[in-house]
Amino acid sequence: MSASLFRTVLARHGALAAKRSLAGNSFVRGKATLPDLKYDYGALEPYISARIMELHHSKHHQTYVNGLNSALEAIAEAEAKGDFTKAASLAPLLNFHGGGHLNHTLFWENLAPASREGGGEPDGALKKAIEADFGSFETFRKQMNAALTGIQGSGWAWLAKDKDSGNLAIVTRANQDPVTGQLVPLMGIDAWEHAYYLQYENRKAEYFEAIWNVINWKTVAQRFEKA
Q1: DSSP class of residue 159?
Q2: C-alpha separations of 173 from 157, 179, 222 in Å
Q3: Which residue range or ranges hold the Manganese/iron superoxide dismutase N-terminal domain (predicted)?
Q4: Collapsing DSSP states into helix, strand and coil, what is residue 190?
Q5: pLDDT tens digits along 111-160
Q6: For residues 169 and 179, what is the distance between their CA atoms, to the nearest angstrom?
Q7: Which residues are annotated as a binding site?
Q8: CATH classification at residue 200
Q9: Is position 94 within any domain?
């Protein structure tokens, strides 16, 4: 397999886009690293328990970081040997672990304690855009929760902005597939069981309702303005 064909295979898996999105994000000397949180594990209680936050961040996210670094090293080694078939076979691992690292990094930034910047509703230009594209914030929230509920198995629901039209849309992604292409992820909610099960068990709809109390709309608004 030629180098150009290998790159095409990677792009089809979304791995190259994920890699570009990750550039400069939680990396030290070419290696992905687990980002520090701007709040304590218990700061999002009672909506997300300290135990869930500790496991989710220090164990699950760390697993994606480790997997991403291993995939990048293996791909670089295969490319150096000219073994593009081997390198291409690793594209799904790059997509999964790279997407997992990117998605979770964005997710932690999406959250803030309810006593500080978490919860409520957005204001300014973001509020106007949500009202223009969804009718009202409450309609948007309900549609987002419906999208989350409709995810079969594991995945994410995102509020995203189209770079060309500027319109907002709700999109879902399976497993750890990142939001790429013309869409810029603004705010995501993790629908994997590890994000809620220890606290909410099979009552995931309660988790989907509770998390709105700790959404950091200031961060979402900043992403919206930059997109």
Answers
A1: E
A2: 6, 7, 23
A3: 33-112
A4: strand
A5: 999 999 999 999 999 999 999 999 999 999 999 999 999 999 999 999 99
A6: 12
A7: 56, 104, 190, 194
A8: 3.55.40.20
A9: no
